Amino acid sequence: MTAPAEATQSGLDDLTVFLKAAGDGLRLEVLQVLGQNSFGVLELCEIMAMKQSGMSHHLKVLAQAGLVEKRREGNSIFYRRRLPPADTRTSALHGALFEQLDQTPLETVTARRLQGVQAQRAAQSRAFFVRHADDLARHQDLIAEHEQYAEQACELLDRAAGSRATSGNGSVLEIGPGDGRFLAPLAQRFKQVLALDHAEAMLERARREVAEQGLDNVRLVLGEWPEAGTTLPAVDAVVMNMVLHHLASPAAALQAAARQLTPDGVVVVTDLCRHNQKWAVEACGDFWLGFDEADLVSWAGRAGLVLRDSLFLALRNGFQVQVRSFQRGGTEIDKRL
User: Fold this and answer.
1) How far apart are CA 170 and CA 233, in angstroms?
2) How many helices (H) and strands (E) does the chain have?
3) What SMART domains does the annotation carry (predicted)?
4) What are the distances in angstroms from CA 159 to CA 174, 175, 324, 332?
5) Per DSSP, which regions of the chain are E strands?
6) CB burial class (10 A; 0-12, 13-18, 19+) of residue 198?
7) Are 59 and 79 in contact (CB under 8 A)?
8) CA-based angle 222:225:228, to the nearest 5?
9) CA distances from 65 to 84, 93, 232 (A)
10) How far apart are CA 330 and CA 261, in angstroms?
11) DSSP label of 192
12) Which residues in 218-255 are b (16+ Cβ under 10 Å) and which e?
């Protein structure tokens, strides 16, 4: 049995390691940056304008304190903030630190470099979709066919948006409509449908679908998300079907979605659960290998969105799809269907 004095010293040791890691301004700024997204070491070096050896040292200190963790995406290693664990002596400090950092604006120069790195990621994604627009649907259907999740996404949208989705009087924005197959269900539910995509080649496919279906209440917009949100009107719902894993910053995308909503508006997200099938990066342009359940809830919560419903579909070819609905300023429900 551990003696009381030894247990006390162990607790102080943990606290010392934590406070040492958090007692450095540069490391705090790294934690601010990681609150925006996961980044590789070289990306963090670019954002923080420092050499790799120095950045690796700071990340090691933060990892030893339990403030960051590594995870592999394809052939790359990314660092991200570790969610505060519930069973450690530093849990309360851990959560309070992240909350304060999220409320503190980044230094202007650091924020500019961060935007530059995210712009590079977005350009890579856009170039991929330009090159592979014609065969993308075939590859993506190996992961998750549209029919596999479309009905469930509509169900969660109806439940969350209520009369705004059933009266035909509301408005909705779909991010990344792809070939436009989800636009018809949206057009049946809402008076006004906006669809935003960053690749003209993909929008052309959506235009053909809109024309074939005779959807006269759909407007297609070319632009980057989340930047384009500043030029779009507020909407009652934002839909992102199999989009987040292509975006440079999923957390920023959810924050932008929250800002785009009218009061009590809703966000419906369909995406992959965390997986390890690296071929999806090359074949489908996936930037992230799906998401842990807690990731989406954490990012949405920081954006002021409250979880309503969760639905996890059966595995297909080793991939599992999660469908989640969130409400702006709502009360947490989290009904698992």
Assistant:
1) 12
2) 14, 10
3) HTH_ARSR
4) 17, 20, 11, 14
5) 68-73, 76-81, 171-175, 192-197, 218-222, 235-241, 261-272, 305-312, 321-328, 335-336
6) buried
7) yes
8) 60
9) 11, 12, 42
10) 13
11) E
12) bebeeebbbebbeebeebbbbbbbbbbbbbbbbbbbbb
pLDDT of residue 66: 92
Measured CA to CA in angstroms, residue 110 lies from 30, 48, 58, 233, 300 at distances of: 10, 6, 17, 30, 24
CA distance 225 to 206: 17
Taking the whole predicted model, whether its pTM rises above 0.90 is answered as no
In the structure encoding, which two tokens stand for residue 260, read together? 């785009």
Q: Is the CB of residue 181 less than 8 Å from the CB of residue 209?
A: yes
**Quick one: pLDDT at residue 120?**
83
How many C-alpha atoms does 122 have within 13 Å on its Cβ side? 20
Task: Identify the residue whose tokens are 């785009």.
Answer: 260
Q: Can you give the pLDDT at residue 170?
A: 92
Q: Which residue in this structure is represented by tokens 């500043």?
A: 230
How far apart CA 124 and CA 285 sit, in angstroms, is 9
Tell me 319's DSSP state. B
- Give 229-244 pLDDT, tens digit per residue: 778 999 999 999 999 9
Q: What is the pLDDT at residue 74?
A: 65
Q: Tell me the pLDDT tens digit for each residue of 16-75.
A: 999 999 999 999 999 999 987 788 999 999 999 999 999 999 999 999 999 998 887 767
| Dihedral-angle region of residue 290 (phi above 0 means left; psi in -120 to 50 means alpha; beta otherwise) | left
Q: How far is CA 169 from CA 11, 88, 177, 187, 311, in A?
A: 58, 50, 21, 11, 27
Please list the ranges in the chain whose pLDDT falls under 70.
Answer: 1-11, 74, 125-126, 128-144, 165-168, 280, 282-283, 285, 316, 330-337
- Strand, coil or helix: 266: strand
Cα angle: 113, vertex 115, 119; to 5 degrees: 115
Of 148, 70, 175, 139, nearest in space to 277 by CA? 139
